Amino acid sequence: MTTVRFLVNGAPVEVDVPGMRRLLDVLREDLGLTGAKEGCGEGECGACTVILDGEVVDSCLVPICQVEGRIVRTVEGLARRTGDGPVLDELQQAFLEAGGAQCGICTPGMLMAARQYLDAGGGPDDVAIRTAIAGNLCRCTGYTKIVEAIAQAASVHP
Predict the structure, then answer these.
(1) Gap between the Cα atoms of 125 and 155, Å rounded
(2) CATH superfamily of 80-156
(3) What is the pTM of this model?
(4) How many CA atoms within 13 Å lie on the side-chain side of 59?
């Protein structure tokens, strides 16, 4: 067992797990953060996408031993907490309004890839958005509504 300390969505966590356990499994099973999904388990689909130290990664490919002292952001960390409850991130709101989610398997990964794109200064350009989410597969929407949602969020992103 290895003790690994890191930040998840701004909160410090410590887990005692085998060092080669996947970040995806630690998030879902040990920390109860089930937003990241297991799709392919091979880093091909993007359903398990999280942001690790400002970079989009497939959490199914990251051994927890490589996360020591790092910062992880998951889809659960997008909404802000207020006295009245959670307030959706503008990207989440745009997905809701544009119909960018259907079955929900790819949605958390799409949101995280799009969030990193927006945080890096990405704008409402269709080609740039499609490039930013290229590692995330969707079998339901055909991407049009997803791209529209990201473009909508990009137009209001500070």
Answers:
(1) 10
(2) [2Fe-2S]-binding domain (1.10.150.120)
(3) 0.95
(4) 32
